[in-house]
Structure formats: C-alpha cells, structure tokens
Design goal:
The protein is mainly α. The chain has three domains: about 45 residues; about 40 residues; about 60 residues. It is about 65% helix and about 0% strand. The protein is built from nine helices and no strands. Helix 1 packs across helix 3. The termini are far apart.
Length: about 200
C-alpha cells in the first residue's frame, strides 16, 4: 500500500513477508498456557528428571526455571516434591558423600567440594560429612598404599612429594596425609625386609 505524506511526496510500499515481524499487528495469543497446564508441565519435567537421577532442590529449581515456568509454579512443584519425599537434600547429600568416599576414595574436603557442585545446602553438606563412615586417616592410608604400588623406582623425596600431592588432590588434610604416607612407607619397607634371597 502506497501512502502520501503531508508534503505530497509518495512513500514507499511496505510489504510484509510471511513470518516477519509486523509492528502494526496487535493480535495477542488467544491461547496462553493456563495455570493448570503450567503445573502439569512442571510435574512432567520434574518427574522425567527424577527418573534419570536424584537431584537436589536447587538443581530442580534451576531446571524448572530454565523451562520458562513462573516462580510461583516452580516453588509449588518443589514444595510438592519435598512433601512426598521425592526431593530430600539431606538424604541425597548423605548418599552421595558415602559413594564419593567409598567408590572414588575421596577425603572429606573433596567430598564437600563435589557435594557443592550438586547445589546442596551447606547444612545438608555438613551433616553428610559428619556421618561419613570410616576414619579419614585409614582411608588416606589405603589410598597411599594403592598409589605407592604405582610409584616404583623413585627416590624417597620424589616419592613423598608425589604421594603428598596425590592425597591432597583426593581431599585429605595435611596431618592425615603425612601420617598416611608414613604408615604406607613403613608397611612397604616391612614387606621388602621380609623378602629373603637364597
């Protein structure tokens, strides 16, 4: 459509292309998602996520918000999941802490760091750490023994340095590391001394 402006000059014809934005279009979506539909969508998203793995409340909140759900719908869904026991940060933190320690041989500080990555509350993390089974020194000694078997042929200083760095990366503390290395090296020396040649 061509229009004439006030000075009598002709204006260019504007043609809208299919799918292009038309600033004069005032039509509003006649079918916005209802509150019930948003609630149902939140339930579907959360239950699907929970069939794949256990998640923390904050992980679920982050997931639901990423799907453009309003804050009140997200809060209601999280509250529902916590009420029925499908979200339990304390149980999740305890379970994960035990697994990180048992399967990966991690010390308390590394376990704490891993739990933090799962967006668990500091209260849940601290409680899980107090309930960790086993003594940290014993665990550090077990890890030192395992690592020692791979470090053959090194001088004592290099061996100590590498064992210390390894155990530190595993999340053990200084005193635990020093005592674990002493114990592992003493056991290793005892085993060597017991070998007799004829």
């Amino acid at each position: 459509m061509t229009e004439i402006d006030r000075s009598g000059e002709r204006l260019a014809t504007v043609t809208a292309f299919p799918g292009s934005f038309d600033p004069t279009d005032t039509e509003v979506d006649d079918n916005p998602e209802s509150a019930g539909e948003m609630t149902k969508r939140a339930e579907n998203i959360s239950l699907y996520a929970l069939t794949r793995r256990a998640v923390s409340s904050r992980e679920m909140e982050k997931l639901l918000k990423s799907r453009d759900l309003p804050d009140d719908v997200v809060a209601a869904e999280i509250e529902r999941l916590e009420r029925v026991g499908l979200l339990d940060d304390f149980a999740l933190a305890t379970d994960l802490a035990e697994r990180f320690q048992r399967r990966k041989g991690l010390g308390a500080s590394a376990v704490k760091q891993e739990l933090g990555k799962r967006l668990l509350s500091s209260t849940a993390i601290e409680l899980a750490l107090t309930e960790l089974p086993g003594d940290q020194l014993e665990l550090a000694t077990v890890e030192a023994r395992k690592r020692l078997s791979r470090l053959n042929g090194l001088d004592k200083e290099t061996l100590n340095r590498r064992l210390y760095a390894y155990l530190q990366r595993r999340g053990f503390r200084g005193s635990e590391i020093s005592n674990a290395i002493k114990a592992a090296l003493a056991e290793s020396a005892d085993n060597v001394a017991r070998v007799t040649f004829r």
